[in-house]
Amino acid sequence: MKHNKMGFISIILFGINAIIGSGIFLLPNQVYEIAGNASLFIFIFDSVVVLAIALCFAEAATLFKDDGGPFLYAQKAFGNFWGFEVGFIKWIANMIAWAVMANAFATTLGTLFSKLNGFTNQKLILVILIIGLTIINLLGVNSTKIVNNISTIAKLIPLIIFVLIGIFHIHFENFTPLIDYHFSISKFGNASLVIFYAFAGFESFAVPAEDMENPQRTLPKVIIIVMLIIPFFYFLLQFVSIGILGNHLGSTTAPIQAAMEKILGSNGLWLVGIGEIISILGISTALSFYTPRSAVVLAEYRMLPHFMNKRDRNNTPYWSIIISGIITLLISLSGTFKSLVVIVVVSKFAQYIPTILSIPVLRKKFPYRKHTFIIPGGLLIPVFALISSVWLLAHASIKEIIAGICGYLIAVPFYFFAKNANK
To answer: Is the pTM of this model over 0.70?
Structure first.
């Protein structure tokens, strides 16, 4: 039976949806508070770093048509143990991230519609959201693709309107001085890390590769296209936000809302508020789609119970979808996701660094074909990506580093239990 798969445009929209979430609506003020107008240069620096890492993912993606993404690259390069470590942490981190998004959706909805406030209503909203997205996933790729495409386009509309209208309300005196004399390398590193998290998500593009049309040819193109579009878009958002709000940007908690309200009044506030809700819904949709696929690939390699790899006639991995949905729901209702969210932060580098390191190994292990994408410049870009990743990670808090290490340690007994159980 021929299964529905995502085409080129749908994969690009999926990629954009996987990255642009609620953070973009809060991003400009956080980085401006640290770096002021110099935040524009930090956006450029992070864009270069992210593109270098994304190129490593693009080269690795061209070698395989299977699900897995970072897990698959680490497993093929360094063996089952390191593959499991990356894959298991990714699965857990994705469920935590999904729980965070579900709670953010309920909270944001409550701020716009006061009748939806209150403990019971908030919990009911996130239960409906998680169960609803789980059901949509069970209906197959085509249903998820439709929801993903609609939500991606819908959340981009208010941001594009903001840039197009805001560009005519810029006060260029707000960009003086461009670099404050208090600015330092330490602030540059801290601000770079803050912005970097807004780019996270591209590492999940290749996780559901089997649900995409011709992933070996398509994924490298999609990764590069998306990682060129989003940095440019982020830079424009920051540029317009500074131009409209100036020094007030650092003190507002909802910068894009504040800027739109200044331009369009209460209508602008509502436009961005609805856009934020759709944005959170969009990234929740993306998470609900690729989170179960992170478990599927572990089950395929007998690192999780094999029944989690079972698929129905539509090629839908129903057990992984159901179990991922249940665990996400329990995390979101427990409230512990707030203390676990630091695992999500460090888990990004736990996927980036092994993928970067896998490039020279994969080049030796696997023959390159005509369609294979090879990063230009030999190992120059992977080395730059590795050094930059380590430098950014060095600016994470001790709490984040410890949480990441603990996440890796927690995964170890699961690996040996699964290994012994499957003998």
So the answer is: yes
